[in-house]
């Protein structure tokens, strides 16, 4: 579904991603772990199309198409969704209406008719249950005055409504207490299915207690230095990142 | 010799300042006025024209006019309209009219009785043309005139006062609650192909414990000049909601002063929507002249092309225990220019003042300019005063957030622009006015249809 080949990306002249290779198949859940500043979030944002980053080399194919050639909205319509690390507050635009505009843009792209108000409301009610969102948050402006946990839940709720092919979670677990983490994880688990893949960006192993990945990759200084199964996360939990950082430094030095 | 030259130069400057046609028109105007007007009124006009003759039009060397150049007004020749205001095609009212408790229509500043209506209002309420009131019971009106907007040193207030004759009179007696809205509608246009000038003068008196909502709408087509003054008194405990919708033609000039006096425990509010006009200046002066007043001053201005809009605010906290909350927002596109100048003046002894002022500007183009100048003058020591002003572009992170959910770039920008305006829009309690403004925004924004679906 997603093939990343030798991806290099920089921001303001500084190279952050230094050659990423990753292959994600439909139905799989991949976790990217790594210390602060390793480029995890950059990878997520480059995939979502944030324009602050410059891709200097490499290729990303999404369902066989050149992802990097698409505008952010095209990527979303094709089925890429990124749950933000810091969801943006948008005063004046209600959560429901925002979502309706987004869903209809996606549906239009897929050749589906726009949803009428009743269909939409039925869908939204169903999806809200997934993340135990209170109905009052629907009518409030997007993320405005939401707590940290509510914002993250709102991201998963948006994902549930938009039903992407690839869901990227950019440190969705950060700042969540254990109850909120469980709710977010349950929401993701319900959305796991054979034609949908996930890329989880996380600093901590604990998210992976709740969303069990098929593959774990460790990113250090813009490169994937190790890949493995879910047991790699446990190893990291035990040993920290320093042994891999040392290994990576040695590799570069060699 | 020297002295003579200097005097000649002065004469020239006066000529250049463009007052001569107005002074000549004042003499014509005097001859047209009905006989037997009160001497006090005649004296007020005379004082005003003398003041205007002495000061001339403002120029950029004056601090209050540093960023607003009125030369285009000075250059143009305007005429007071003479045609029958009732002859206006009623269709022209349709875009602005709504179901109101009373509606007074003024065409080029003159009352059009046949286009106006006054419904059932509480006993003692007066909603009429000022000219009629001056003719029938001047003793009730004249004492108020010029008392509030005493600022004859302000050239456009002086000019308006010199030509004071018609406009609206709204007087709500003690304890009366006006159901619905009183709508004052001013339509401007050239006459026989010549630009017109009008001097609407409005007097609003809300008695003790009364409640009233008023809307002033200024609209029109082609080139003309509206020089307006509204004086409003909110009596003790009165709740007065005032809305002004300025949607003049883009060729029009609009110079207006709104003078508010709040008395003890009153709640005067002003909502200024400025979306039209070529060269616009709105002065809003609120004098909080009693304890316990809660004064709200909201504003939204949109300008594009070469429109210029200047909002000058002045809040006088003359007594203790008063609140004033000011929020003005501007959206500027093209080569538009906006000026915001907000002064909060807390007088000596006005303790426990709570004054907030905020001015936010959104620039949608590279060439749009906003100047924001908040000022505090505080002569009391136990007060809470805050002010803030911003000039900025749309937040890139927010645009990206919307795009990352599938919303197109232009639609995202339109949504965020609408969202920027929305807190002012939502504060408009008169539904037809709010709906009209929403509609205006949907039409103005490049992807307004997406916004319409989304809000």
Write up this protein.
The complex is a heterodimer of chains A (254) and B (455). Chain A is of the alpha/beta class. Chain A has one domain (2-253): Rossmann fold (3-Layer(aba) Sandwich), CATH 3.40.50. Helix content of chain A is 41%, strand content 28%. Chain A is built from 10 helices and 12 strands. The longest helix of chain A has 15 residues, at 95-109. Chain A is globular. Chain A starts with a strand and ends with a helix. Chain B is globular and about 70 Å long. With 455 residues, chain B is α/β, with parallel strands linked by helices. The mean pLDDT of chain B is 93.
- Proportion of β residues of chain A? 25-35%
Query: Residue-averaged pLDDT of chain A, rounded?
Result: 89
Number of domains of chain B: 3
The CATH superfamily of chain A is: P-loop containing nucleotide triphosphate hydrolases
Which two chains share the most extensive interface? Answer: A-B, 34 and 28 residues
Q: Which descriptor suits the 3D outline of chain A?
A: globular
CATH fold title of chain A: Rossmann fold
Main beta-sheet annotation of chain B: 11 strands, mixed
| Count of discrete structural domains of chain A | 1
How would you name the oligomeric state of the polypeptide chains in this document? Answer: heterodimer
Query: How many β strands of chain A by DSSP?
Result: 12
* Overall pLDDT of chain B: 93
Q: How far is it from the N-terminal to the C-terminal residue of chain B, by CA?
A: 72 Å
Largest sheet of chain A: 6 strands, mixed
């Amino acid at each position: 579904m997603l093939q990343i080949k030798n991806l290099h990306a920089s921001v303001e002249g500084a190279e952050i991603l230094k050659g990423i290779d990753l292959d994600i198949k439909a139905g799989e859940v991949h976790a990217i772990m790594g210390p602060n500043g390793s480029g995890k979030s950059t990878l997520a944002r480059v995939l979502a199309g944030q324009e602050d980053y410059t891709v200097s080399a490499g290729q990303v194919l999404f369902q066989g198409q050149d992802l990097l050639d698409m505008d952010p909205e095209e990527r979303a319509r094709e089925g890429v969704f990124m749950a933000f690390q810091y969801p943006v507050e948008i005063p004046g635009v209600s959560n429901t209406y925002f979502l309706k505009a987004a869903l209809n843009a996606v549906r239009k792209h897929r050749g589906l008719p726009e949803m009428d108000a009743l269909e939409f409301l039925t869908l939204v009610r169903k999806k809200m249950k997934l993340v135990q969102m209170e109905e009052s948050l629907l009518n409030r402006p997007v993320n405005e005055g939401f707590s940290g946990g509510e914002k993250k839940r709102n991201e998963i709720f948006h994902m549930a409504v938009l039903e992407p092919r690839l869901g990227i979670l950019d440190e969705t677990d950060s700042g969540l207490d254990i109850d909120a983490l469980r709710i977010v994880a349950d929401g993701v688990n319900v959305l796991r299915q054979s034609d949908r893949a996930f890329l989880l960006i996380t600093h901590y192993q604990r998210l992976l207690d709740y969303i069990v990945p098929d593959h774990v990759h460790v990113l250090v200084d813009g490169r994937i230095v190790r890949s493995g199964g879910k047991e790699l996360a446990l190893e990291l939990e035990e040993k920290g990142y320093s042994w891999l950082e040392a290994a990576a430094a040695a590799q570069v030095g060699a | 010799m020297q002295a003579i030259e200097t005097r000649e130069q002065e004469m020239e400057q006066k000529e250049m300042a463009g007052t001569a046609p107005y002074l000549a028109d004042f003499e014509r105007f005097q001859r047209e006025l009905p006989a037997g007007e009160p001497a006090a009124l005649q004296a007020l006009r005379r004082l005003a024209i003398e003041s205007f003759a002495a000061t001339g039009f403002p120029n950029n060397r004056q601090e209050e006019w540093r960023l607003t150049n009125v030369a285009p007004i000075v250059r143009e020749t305007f005429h007071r309209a003479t045609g029958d205001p009732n002859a206006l095609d009623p269709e022209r009212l349709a875009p602005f009219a709504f179901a109101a408790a009373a509606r007074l229509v003024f065409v080029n500043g003159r009352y059009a009785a046949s286009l106006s209506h006054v419904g059932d209002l509480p006993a003692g309420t007066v909603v009429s043309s000022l000219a009629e009131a001056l003719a029938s019971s001047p003793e009730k009106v004249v004492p108020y005139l010029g008392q509030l907007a005493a600022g004859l040193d302000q050239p456009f207030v002086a000019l308006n006062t010199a030509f004071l004759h018609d406009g609206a009179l709204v007087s709500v007696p003690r304890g009366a609650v006006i159901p619905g809205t009183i709508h004052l509608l001013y339509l401007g246009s050239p006459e026989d192909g010549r630009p017109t000038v009008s001097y609407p003068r409005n007097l609003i008196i809300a008695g003790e414990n009364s409640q009233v909502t008023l809307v002033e709408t200024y609209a029109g087509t082609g080139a003309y000049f509206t020089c307006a003054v509204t004086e409003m008194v909110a009596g003790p405990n009165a709740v007065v909601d005032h809305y002004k919708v300025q949607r003049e033609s883009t060729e029009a000039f609009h110079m207006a002063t709104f003078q508010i006096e709040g008395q003890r425990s009153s709640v005067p509010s002003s909502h200024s929507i400025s979306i039209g006009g070529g060269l616009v200046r709105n002065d809003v002066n609120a004098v909080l002249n009693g304890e316990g007043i809660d004064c709200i001053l909201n504003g939204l201005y949109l300008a594009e092309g070469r429109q210029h809009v200047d909002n000058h605010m002045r809040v006088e906290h003359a007594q203790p225990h008063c609140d004033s909350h000011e929020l003005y927002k501007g959206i500027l596109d093209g080569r538009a220019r906006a000026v915001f100048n907000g002064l909060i003046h807390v007088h000596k002894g006005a303790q426990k003042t709570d004054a907030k002022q905020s001015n936010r500007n959104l620039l949608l183009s590279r060439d749009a300019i906003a100047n924001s100048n908040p000022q505090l003058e505080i002569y009391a020591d136990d007060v809470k005063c805050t002010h803030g002003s911003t000039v900025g572009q749309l937040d890139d992170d927010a645009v990206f957030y919307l795009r990352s959910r599938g919303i197109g770039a232009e639609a995202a920008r339109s949504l965020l622009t609408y969202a920027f305006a929305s807190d002012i829009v939502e504060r408009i309690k008169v539904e037809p006015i709010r709906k009209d403004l929403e509609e205006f925004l949907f039409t103005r924004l490049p992807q307004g249809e997406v916004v319409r679906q989304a809000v």
